[in-house]
Amino acid sequence: MISEKLKIAVLGGTGNIGEGMVLRLALQNLMAEGVKNEVIIGSRSKEAANEAAKKAISELENCGFDTSRITITGNSNYEAAQAAEVIILTIRFDYILPLLHEIREALEDKILITPVVPMVKEGDLFVYKPPEEGSAALAIQKNVPASTKVVAAFHNIPARKLRDIVKCKAVYHALVCSDDAEAKKLVIKLTDHMGCMKPLDGGPLKQANTMESLTPLLINLAKLNGFKDLGINFS
């Protein structure tokens, strides 16, 4: 059951991508349209999560936003996932499977969003290294309860632009893949009001490998050609 005010856990919310997600989700509460929510930052350390929550509120206040209608709290990964209806994984692929095992019981009947990209650095460039399932998204789906609705999204959004809640004027297309139509619809709606992003239906979850593989390509293109914060915009 999805409540009127959506509870969203950002696991790994103390990292760059997670921090940007937290800020943009929280700001939806100040918009006339969009999904109203409560954001819960998850971390291995509850204390670190609480500090990240305080930092996010302070950053929003320093940018001139009214935080009276914004709720950001911190908790352990398990407790954050347990309390949430939607969970976003913003940690490295290397740590995903142990985390999923740790919080498995908390994932029943939840929407689980993965922007995770399995990649490694070879020399000066990054290479996409999917697991045997074919993508991080499919590996995640294999390791969660059958009732968990896995959605792949946000892979190709530059972390620095995601955090730039004041100056970012660029609009990046965010591809959304899932086998669950209702979960995909909710994530598209969520994305539509996050600012700097325009969602596109990317098809079923098996398409996630194409989305994931674009991330190292964009990083490499930026490095080789002197670009910054390279993303995708289809026209």
TrEMBL record:
GO terms for molecular function: coenzyme F420 binding; cupric reductase (NADH) activity; ferric-chelate reductase (NADPH) activity; NADP binding; oxidoreductase activity, acting on NAD(P)H. InterPro entries: NAD(P)-bd_dom_sf (IPR036291), NpdG (IPR010185), P5C_Rdtase_cat_N (IPR028939), STEAP_metalloreductase (IPR051267). This is Reduced coenzyme F420:NADP oxidoreductase. It holds the Pfam family F420_oxidored. It is an enzyme of class 1 (oxidoreductase). Keywords: Oxidoreductase. GO terms for cellular component: plasma membrane. Its EC number is 1.6.99.-. GO terms for biological process: copper ion import; NADPH regeneration. PANTHER family: DUDULIN-RELATED, F420-DEPENDENT NADP REDUCTASE. Residues 7-117 form the Pyrroline-5-carboxylate reductase catalytic N-terminal domain. The keyword Phosphoprotein does not apply.
